[in-house]
Amino acid sequence: MFEKGQMYMLRGMKKNKRYDAMCDMDGALYVADSQGSWTNRYPRFNDGAIFVCLEGSPEFDLEAFEKTLSPESLEIHRLAATARAKGAYDYHREVSFLAPNGNRVRMRVKGNKTKFKKVTSRTRTK
Length: 126
What we know:
- By secondary structure, the chain is an alpha+beta fold.
- It is 20% helix and 30% strand.
- It contains two helices and eight strands.
- A five-stranded antiparallel sheet has the order 7-6-5-1-8, with no helix packed on it. The protein has a three-stranded antiparallel sheet with strand order 3-2-4, with no helix packed on it.
- It is elongated.
C-alpha cells in the first residue's frame, strides 16, 4: 500500500464529526479528537496535508513464513499458524512519514490506510 518515496495526501477526515484530523503525538501519528481538552497541545494535520513516505512496509510474505513451519505438522495447524502470523503482522505493521511540519512520524497501517490517497499528476487539490 505505502511505497517509499511517494507522496500521500490526508483525505476524508472532515466527513467524520468527531475525529476530524491526525495529530503528531511525539513521533506517532494518531487520529485527533476535535472535542478533547488537549487539541492544541500537539501538531494537527487536516485534509489536504501532504506526507512523504520514508519507509514503506512490505506485504506479508506467505512463502517465507511457510518455510519456517515444520513439514510434519498437520495442514489445519499450518493454516492456523499462518492466519495468526498474518494477523499479528497486519496489526503491528507501521510506516514512516515525513510530516508537513518537517518531523518524522510513524503510523500503524491497520485502520489508517484508507485515510491517505497517493498523490499523482491527476490529483486535485482544494
